[in-house]
Amino acid sequence: MNPQGESWLDRWHVNPSIxxxxxxxxxxxxxxxxxxxxxxxxxxxxxxxxxxxxVGAVATQGAQGVIVFFALSGFLISWPFWRRKLNxxxxxxxxxxxxxxxxxxxxxxxxxxxxxxxxxxxxxxxxGIFKLALEWLTGLALIKPVSGVLNSVMWSLIVEVHFxxxxxxxxxxLRNVSAKLSLWxxxxxxxxxxxxxxxxxxxxxxYFSLQPQIxxxxxxxxxxxxxxxxxxxxxxxxxxxxxxxxxxxLGLALLGATLLMxxxxxxxxxxxxxxxxxxxxxxxxxxxxxxxxxxxxANHATVRLLSWPWLRWCGIISYEWYxxxxxxxxxxxxxxxxxxxxxxxxxxIVSGSFIVGLSIAALAYKYFSLPILKRGRxxxxxxxxxxxPKFTTERRVGGVKV
Length: 402
Known about the structure:
Shape: globular
Number of domains: 1
Largest sheet: 2 strands, antiparallel
Helix content: 55-70%
Number of strands: 2
Oligomer: single chain
Distance between the termini: 15 Å
Strand content: under 5%
Structural class: mainly alpha
């Protein structure tokens, strides 16, 4: 890695307080956020056909990036729990766990709500959006159905918080159970129960939706965290073989094939929509689990590519970018109007939305989220990170490369 590139990236980076640091995971976050941004950014005429329609369908499949985010969260959030369990710590929950999650998630969310709400009120001429904003700021939106009018991408935060609350409860319940048995109980539990609930809801005609209300149907989306929990447990137990990093390459190829398959199925709908979504979502979950196998070898060639500074930078600011990107895109289209086949206007809408959204995210992270994260991590410190395995060169312990 370029030392000069690394030095500028360090100014944007917060060293993990309880985890090993895997640089490539920032890169995977970068890929995931680019998938989501492209999903909302690229649009085509609904009446288009042929290659143009297929390209639009491929872009739409970028929504699968949210599942990749969930898998990464499953790994990163569960890893310190596994370490404490394997070290025989009497306290199953890492010290300061709740506060660290709060300082990571809530301030950027609150900033986006405060900044965006007046604009949404003006756009829709609906003062009731102020009440909706208050529901997000007070946390009511996490426990009761709310309208999807205000920045509907925030639905994923509801699922994340469900996971943050459920995981420590499960580790507490399994504190007297062996690590290996707990690994299978948690993995299978997160895979089977949400899937069964999702199919049960479907039998009643209930599905995930964002309009008119955000409906996530707890716990039907939590299976997206399962493979992250599983790989974190294997890694903590030292069961990951170096050669398993090749599975990451398989995951990368499978993810690409899944996006193409999803696009083809959407262009040629010949089966039940619920079945199509299940297939594509499951292939994405498997892909994300395989991608996490890169933890086995930090010197693997693809790991080095994923650790490219600019890709990691996209991953580091991904949360802020996620919160702000869609409103910018929608407002750009609303202000500039339809492209009507004009390539210059279309390029201006797409590129302008991309640059403005990215700039807002970078500023919000650098001057708002980053200082809060640093203070929060310093105040609510946890166990020191363990020494890095000998074969790695890209991880840090205590902010110092070793």
